[in-house]
Amino acid sequence: MAETAEERTLTHATSTDERQGGEGGVANISPSHRRYILMLLLVVSTLNFLDRQIINILVEPIKQDLHLADWQRGMLTGLSFALFYSVLGLPIARLADRSNRPIIIGVSLLAWSGFTALCGIANSFAHLLLARVGVGCGEAGGGPPSHSLIADFTTPQNRASALAYFSLGSPIGTLLGLGLGAVVADAFGWRMAFFIAAAPGIILAVLLMATVKEPRNLRALEGKPKASIKDAWIELKSKRTFWWICFAGAATSVATYGQGAFWSSFFLRVHGDEISTLSPAGTGPLVLVGVSLGLVKGLSGVAGVITGGLITDRLARRDLRSYCSVPAIALLLASPAFVLVMLAPGFVMAAGLLILPVFLSSLIFGPSFAAVQTLVSPGTRATAAAILLFILTLTGLGLGPLFIGICSDIFSASLGSAEGLRWALLLTAPANLIAGLAFWRARRTIVQELELD
Most exposed of 46, 218, 221, 289 (fewest Cβ within 10 Å)? Predict the structure, then answer.
């Protein structure tokens, strides 16, 4: 039964893409130009995560300079960004479902790059908080329109791989943010790191808007009835698989974003003596931690994202439940792997063990994003992506770092700052187990809920 449903799905989706192409969509984009668009969107995604994540490696010197508590750094790395990113994501996605997506992405890129630069001139917690809010507002226009654009010029057979390629921006941006951020901060101070991170976005935004055209026939769309937010909600409300994926994504995001905000502090506090001994002459411990974290999270994250997309596309040709099976198995294994990192006796061992949970957690990007884009009709794709990212960002990035920061402050009063942070991080270990079980539950309904009309 699953194979029959899959054949019907792939046949319909391919014919849908052909119809879109006849109206100025996929058929009018050459393979080389598709690759060019995907490459540009990958760079946009990379800058998105670079500007979002660079504060994680800079937060210790910022904390010392601006005299911040752990709960305040949790606000800066999480909730301040996530709240406005999440709230603005939906109206921007509704706009993207009916208008020029490259322009929306380009303007958003200009906005978040400008606010990243403003982070570098902040002289108080309040000023930095407002600048981070601005970064979140700008980045709200990056992800959902990009997901929708990619889904429009790919077929279901290669959609997981294409969205996985776009999602490489997360580990690559993290690598650059942690590695280069640490090196620049050590040499020139944390403020200069923000300025350098912001500069490429302005150039790329102009290039994107000048060379990438909207593949849809916007005039044809204007002549058709416009789906309201109510219509989109009715469609999504009926998709049980979508909501299980959202729940799973929220759970794993609490772990991923929460832990990511405190990795550098964890290593510096728990393994500080070993790091000082291992640090190259003439550099501070922040450089070794930043470069090590950047390489581990970047390279293992890239490997995980690519592997997840390729495996899912191959397995889904036989069983569409693979869109949920691959993330489920990966996350069930990631949770105990994370505990091993937290309990490792030294920095070198902990950094080496970190490869495994990062790789496993990164496997989920391609399949989960592709599943969402295949579950809904083309006119709801950006909206569906925005709702998913709304839930992931608000719960994971918004609450994860803040929760760990508060727990760290509480535990540190009796255990000390190093052990207090370790146990605060360990509280997030069950999150990936919950997420894995939720993805496994989504397998039950995904085949019958794929968009076939």
Answer: 218
Domain ranges for the chain: 2-13+28-210+238-449
**Three-class SS state of 451:** coil
- Which one-letter amino acid corresponds to residue 378? P
Q: How confident is the model at residue 219 (pLDDT cuts 50, 70, 90)?
A: low
d(CA 296, CA 207): 31
Q: Which fold has domain 2-13+28-210+238-449?
A: Growth Hormone; Chain: A; (1.20.1250)
pLDDT value at position 174? 83
Amino acid making up residue 315 = L
CB 267 within 8 A of CB 277: no
Cα 243 to chain centroid distance, Å, stands at: 18
Residue 452 has pLDDT above 50, yes or no: no
Cα gap 187→402, rounded to integer Å:
29
Q: Which residue has the tokens 């794709």?
A: 381
What letters, b where the CB count within 10 A reaches 16 and e where it falls short, cover 15-52? ebbeebbebbbbeebeeeebeebbebbbbbbbbbbbbb
* CB neighbour list of residue 141: distance below 8 Å, 6 or more residues apart: 88, 92, 96, 104, 105, 107, 108, 111
Provide the mean pLDDT of the chain. Answer: 84
Both tokens assigned to 3: 């194979």
Write the CA distances from 279 to 172, 286, 295, 331, integer angstroms. Answer: 24, 9, 16, 33
Q: What average pLDDT does range 205-224 have in this prediction? A: 75
What pLDDT band is residue 217 in, cutting at 50, 70 and 90?
A: low
Q: Please write the tens of the pLDDT for every residue from 29-77.
A: 778 888 899 999 999 999 998 988 788 888 888 888 988 887 887 778 7
DSSP secondary structure code for residue 54 in this structure: H
What is the SS3 assignment for 198-263? HHHHHHHHHHHHHHCCCCCCHHHHHCCCCCCHHHHHHHHHCCHHHHHHHHHHHHHHHHHHHHHHHH
Spell out where 241-383 has E strands. none
HEC per residue, 130-163: HHHHHHHHHHCCCHHHHHHHHHHCCCHHHHHHHH
